[in-house]
Every structure is written in C-alpha cells, then in structure tokens.
C-alpha cells in the first residue's frame, strides 16, 4: 500500500486526512491552550555559573558547579518556588512551579547544566487578539520521505538569532535531513537549539510575501542517522517569534537551508481579531 493510498483512505469529506486535522488541533492547543506559547511573557535559558537576569521577571539565575539551577531574590520581589516565597537564594529543581506578581506563573526545566525558565500570563492571549492560524490548503504532494544523514560529531553551525540587536550563535547541528522534492535531492541542516529537539528551519520562494521572510519550521523526531521518516511540509509551522518578538529570540535558517521553489504547504500567518 502506498503512502498516497493510505492518505486517501483517511480523508474526510473535505479532502483532508483526519490525522492532519488532529495535528492542527494539537498545534492550536500548543499555541492557545492552557500552557500555550501565546501566553508566554518571559522565556530564558540559563547555563553557566555567572548570575544573570531574565527579561520580564525578577531574580538572578545561575547554574552551580554541581549543575543545579538556582535563583536569588528578595521577599519583596514576590517570587515563589513550589508555593514558597523566596527570600535569598534557593535551588530550583527541574519541574518546579514558579509564581510572580500579577498572577503570572511559570516553570523551570532542564538537566546537565542547561535549563529553561518559562513564565505565562493567562490574559496575554486575550490581549493579543490572536484567533487563528492561516494555512495553505492541505496538499498530499508535500508528504515526503526523508532520511537522516550523519554529520561530523559535535558539529555546530553559525546561525542568526532574532535578538535586538541581531546576534549570531553556533548552534548544535547533529544530523542533516535528506529529502527528495520533484526528483531533486535537498540536504537540510537539522538544528538542536534545545536538548532533544530536532528542528529544520527553511526558507523558500514564498517568504517575504505569503509567508514570513525569516522562514518556517519543521519539527522532527530525534532518530539516528540512516533512519527514514515522513516529512510533511503541511506541518510547516511559524516561528514562535511572531507571537512575542521580545520573548522568543528564535534561531534563523542556516544559509544552506533554502529551497529554491515555492512551498505552498503549511502555516502562512497568525490571525488576529483586528486583522
């Protein structure tokens, strides 16, 4: 049975596979659900022993020599860790719940000396007016087979990051994705900006007009080199940077990840009530 035949059997009356509709529902929950990205008002990565602040929240955050995340704050800063008000310095175990003034809540996670701190405001979604995601019509021709190809061990690629002002960073790129489009083989660098996340950021000929000029994302499974997978460009997503530019300082596409063609599949733009 071919992939196309399998998809045909799953299609509903609108011509869209039920599996794709389920993915779209899960994607909207990722953006606007209880812990949705559109509700994030602060987001920071913490590594290394030098104490640093995270824009938008109080406290000085650092990683100890033993690899533990700690935060220092005074009682008047209104920081709580697992319900306890902080006054001084305390460890922040991975999975801890955090509280801040104005009813903002957050959590910390990570391991091996690399941690992320995320803070949410449940009212942020309402303030933004976000009400949907504009997408291209589903197209089964953009459901392709891909394969991971080994890269040099420890390879890092210098990519831009959407900070103000713009900056660059050497991001881990453990494998390449090989995908054939209309008979042409394309090799795309796969980034691991966060541990365990495999991400292809690509640009194409729709950028700057129908889709953002910074490109779009394909989130992939963390498989081994030589393993094959389905690469569905209908699941190409917008960068979280568009939700809150000051919060999500996402990486840009590596220079060689450009597809010299129109990829008329996946997400096009976030839709706001005032649009």
Strand adjacency order, main sheet: 1-10-9-8-5-6
Structural class: mainly beta
Return the string of H and E elements. HHEEEEEEEEEEHEEEEEEEEEE
- Indicate how many domains the architecture comprises: 2
Residue-averaged pLDDT: 92
How many alpha or pi helices? 3
Global outline: globular
The number of distinct β-strands equals: 20
Tell me the distance between the termini.
Answer: 44 Å
Low-confidence stretches: 1-13
- Helix residue percentage: 10-25%
Largest sheet: 6 strands, antiparallel
Kindly provide the radius of gyration, computed on alpha-carbon positions and rounded to a whole number of angstroms.
20 Å
Beta-strand percentage range? 35-45%
